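In response to reviewer comment 3 from the previous cycle, which asked for concrete evidence that the modeling workflow produces usable outputs, we include below a single protein chain processed end to end. The sequence was submitted unchanged, and the resulting structure tokens are shown without manual editing.
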Amino acid sequence: MIHQIIETVTNRIIERSKESRQLYLNQMKAAFAEGVTRNVLSCGNLAHGFAGCSLDEKSILSDTKKNNIGIVTAYNDMLSAHKTYEHYPEKIRTYAKKYNAVAQVAGGVPAMCDGVTQGQPGMELSLFSRDVIALSTAVALSHNMFDGTVGLGICDKIIPGLVIGTLKFGHLPTLFIPGGPMKTGISNDEKAKIRQDFAEGKIGRAELLKGESDSYHSAGTCTFYGTANSNQMLMEIMGLQLPGSSFVNPDTELRELLTEEAIKVLSRNCEANSFENSLSTIYDEKVVVNGLVGLLATGGSTNHTIHLIAMANAAGIKINWQDFSDLSNIVPLLTRIYPNGPADVNQFHAAGGMSFVINTLLENGLLHEDVSTILGKGLKAFTKEPKIKDGEIIWVDGVKESLNTEIVRPVSNPFLANGGIVMLDGNIGRAVIKTAAVKDEHLVIEAEAIVFNEQEDLIIAFKNGELEKDFIAVLPFQGPKQNGMPELHKLTPTLGILQARGFKVALVTDGRMSGASGKIPAAIHLSPEAKDGGLIAKIRTGDLIRLNAVTGELSCLNLPIVESRQASTKDNSTTFGFGRELFANMRQLVSSSEEGASFLE
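The workflow returned the following structure tokens.
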């Protein structure tokens, strides 16, 4: 039986979304009725659409009796995670032919790496790249040549962008194929120590670069549990990619067989020619709630307190931070994966992985089982995992007990009784905080603010010995309307050092801290942001702030004085370089963080 709070939140979302969801479904049903095959195209349209195909493929596409799968790929060979996709189109074409279909690359979408742009000007394009990916996906699929869609994407903004884009073609069957994480390099504890030693000046850049290279060492997703791997968890728990496929390493036999199996499933769903197999049918309110539960139970990326809202909105479903917060009260934290613990996703997968997590959540009424997935009705199929027998995939029951309780646990014995993400509310505004890795003694802090204009200002103050005290770092004008809401991950090592020295420190910002948010209490995504008239623009160094992640409070304690001030401003009209000037209109149109930080609607 489903937990009462899960049911209450789900029903609340259904009621809140009634009109917008019905409008969306009506649009998708109309698109399905108009024709999902090439028989609605003129001969000239069709000739252009398959001009580059082989004679055999042209013949197949001409009679419209076999299905054409449109591939939307985020391949590039700079991103380690997306390097894995280099040869996927040719593999998919081979598998499609085997299962009575054809496949074409419908188009490519941009894929940038936050790890490369971290702390650089290009990071100001990162969040907006999600909506650019959604637009690019729509352009790719606009040719109306396709009976089904496969999304090749993994990292931070790519999966959310692909989901938003494909939902606008939600009348088609759609699934996602992961590339898998790189194999484990140096331990996460060792990596963290190297970064901290560099921040303290104990080692030089050469030693730091070697440590980073030993960690991020090959093709595949980075192995920590940031936004990229949170994406993979979400696609699996929402029933949009094959069970047990999220964390299988690249270039292995199982990885290859899973890619073939995905095309087999998609081809079958296309052949059924049923609206019940469409992405719009699968992606409903219950599936969205399952995604929220999965994020909380695994201590996933805070970026998804933005992305999940934008993704749901594309399907006419309205969710907000209160939904996250209410679910967080009853969804326990079941995993300890770096940065929430020492283990990486390879170790999580080996200890039981997604099939174990889904099973224990289902058994305790914390997931909706009665949902549609790419495999049909019911989430129970996702408690199974793939194995190889005689060169083919077979599906076996996943483990019912954790193989390492330091990494993953059942609902009956969680790491924390509540989820790893909490909403904060108070006179400063509304924000979110990731508590999964924050120790109990750091969940409440009351201290004077120190206001910084940029990340570099805090780092300079640290190097000058000015931060040897309790304080709350305040970084305004980092929101989506101001500069695209870059991640502020460069602050983590410095604030971590100060916390380790015994000082009580925290961060309050309208910017982001990413899926790598760790042991420092950080009130992020603050709304309203400074550019939008939020109180954070009036806070000055010396003001007293209370951050209480236990009660969910974020308040300024000398409010009358703060409110009487003139708000600070920050001019970004001269922002240029790295393409940032091209995004000026988007900064003006973008919605608030709690509304998904999107300029699409």
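The chain has a mean pLDDT of 92. We consider this sufficient to address the reviewer's concern, and the full set will be provided in the supplementary archive.
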